[in-house]
Predict the structure.
Amino acid sequence: MDVWSSLLDGFATALTPMNMLYALVGVLLGTAVGVLPGLGPAMTVALLLPVTFALEPASAFIMFAGIYYGGMYGGSTTSILLNTPGESSSVVTAIEGHKMAKAGRAAQALATAAIGSFIAGTIGTLLLVVCAPVVVKFAVSLGNPSYLAIMVLSLLAVTAVLGNSRLRGFCALGLGLAVGLVGSDPVTGQQRLTFGMPLLVDGIDIVVVAVAIFAVGEALWVAAHLRRTAAHVIPVGQPWMGKEDWKRSWKPWLRGTAYGFPFGALPAGGAEIPTFLSYVTEKRLSKHPEEFGHGAIEGVAGPEAANNASAAGTLVPMLSLGLPTNATAAVMLAAFTQYGIQPGPLLFDREPKLVWALIASLFIGNVLLLVINLPLAPAWAKLLQIPRPYLYAGIVFFATLGAYSVNLQAFDLAILLVLGLLGFLMRRFGLPVLPLVLGVILGPRLEQQLRTSLQLSQGSISGLFSEPLAIVVYVIVALVLAWPLARRLRHGTSRSTIDTQQDAGPDVDAGDRGKVSSS
Amino acid sequence: MNVVVGYVPTPEGESALHHALEEARGRKARLLVVNTSRGDALVDERFADEGQMNLLRDRLTASGVDHEVIHGIHGRDASEEILSVARDRRADLIVVGLRRRSPVGKLILGSTGQRVLLEADCPVLAVKS
């Protein structure tokens, strides 16, 4: 019962008035950026990183957790009322949700999304409480070679399994690893990729990278592709559900949770696959299959539950192994390092107060989100009337301020612009940004594991395969890599038909919008 | 003779349209109905959608006044659009609807009505809902 008493301690930390305030700020911000397409929780957390250096780590993470969960809620509002998914994870919600809204059932769609998100988020967070310590117990017994193997698998899975094109994924990953290499070699002190510039010897600050890629890149992209449109939000009153809606919603909520959590917890997490699977399942199991395509409530309830459960699931590898599997978790992990906290299996031992406060705040954030979303969904939709030039001007302003404040160096602004341009070009050529950010964040840690393993075996390559788990993981890696080849050999040239929107959070924007709304 | 009216699907807009119709009928003028949006926000409730445009067209046809509808997004805000239509077509009168704005709202978003009043070359009729 150690876990539960730790959790109660966490509640004690999270329920102080100051921390409650940060949680509230977090969920409000999170919902706002979730509602606005193109802005995501990852960008928001990245922009807030420099601001939060002045805060206690616990307060900062409580706010980030609010933003993270809030983004998941907010996305559904835009999907349902405007047919423009705010996040990649709510693309599926838009399919049935917008049809429901058009048929005059927007209130029910919003209600089932909010309540489903709440239930899935709460169950998911409970599962996180149960699973994370178990994973930690397992993970502390891992040696460097196994840990290295798991990190390789995780990077590979995010790159190869998510995303439409493996080639583009690996390009992005390569760019990220290269950016992560800049600086001095951790073992020998040799300078790498510094181009003779002394300011690069310390490496490129991850805050600058995250802000540049997520915020500046996105702003440039929107500036280049600003489509002049003016849609109408479907008018809606107070979200509510009738008895029949409850009866049709509760099973999809639970099934969605069952899909979402494990997918989130896997190293190749992400919310796109479970939401899609949940949609397909509900369509098959529904007693009203004829309603699908015309606004079936199951098609909103299931995927919405799935995306919130996967958000909770993602925190399992993030907190217990130090492995982020989506963009927001990656930026949160960067925040840990900024505070000088070493992420990894020892996090629960070394920073129990912080971790449990973070987990407790997830429960609190979920309740807050239900309270502010259920009655206020129509008010949130008003945010969509903000002219985008104002919005992105503000984002670029904060990005610049943030990047400068990290080291108070004008040089960082130059890096911000260069990487921002890189972020723009990546969006232009369809490279996913998640592998890049993961490469920058995990690259140095991957290298450290590799160097330690090789030092232990005195440079012999066999040291990388000295643990049975490492070998098992490498076999999985080989299978993941060989799978498409094997499938192609078997089926000729037939291709997978699963066409989900699989880019990193902030990518569902101008370019993809047309595609989504036409489906 | 041309009368230009800035139309928005709100009470002020309806009122402006109502007065513009009367003016156009009285002057035996052609009525130019302008509805536009800058289109830089995702949602603009003041830009009439298809349903609202059809209602508007029906109403104009029923009124028997010679009319023309200018509807679309050209990246300019409504006041610029109204003023440019008025200038190009040598309008004799512009009709706009006014509503109360908070000082802050006016500071941030500006006021279409105010710009038309100040910058138009012809008389402007401003009506309230």
